[in-house]
Amino acid sequence: LFVMQIGNFHLMILVLSILAMTALEQNQLLRGGSLLAFTILSKISPGILGIVLLCQRRFRSVLFVAGAGGLLLALTLLCFGIHPLQFFISYALPHLSSGAAFPPMTTFDGIRTNTSLFGFPFKLQSLGLQIGDPWELGRMMGRLYTVCVVLLAAASSLRKQGDRRDQAIRWMSLLVLSALQSPFAPAYVWFGLFWATILLSVEVRS
Hints:
globular; mainly alpha; 11 helices
């Protein structure tokens, strides 16, 4: 309800990403590739599912995702020119990855509600611990966390594939972990975990 109230796009990206992977599993390459390309270009973090496809050697699916992404970029350039893309690469993307694009990160409410690993040093500092520069430590922890998530995605993709529910739970879990790579990750990024828990709950017997 909170996400719907503020109009955040994160939940829609999560749903579209799961629909994309489901379509690719059913060999609906055009539909799945287009949806996944859209989510990756919109939010970046669903790119973790591209790692899964690569590790599973589903190269046709990867080609459809890449092709759809290239077409979306071409349409963007045709409609809006080169300047928005240049601005995104040269300014917006570095500010997003460094945390500079998130002014609330250093406020009390921002520190309290940030669930990303990047924000952990700010929590320690607010508790009075001497940790040096929280920005530098946060960036270092963020880079290490990114490597761990990619390795986890590769490892999970090589496991024996279960039923559709099991696969969906893996995708949701990876999407949550990938979203936590953002320097500022409010509680709504955990929505995928709640969704996965609902699917897991059918196995509970006592």
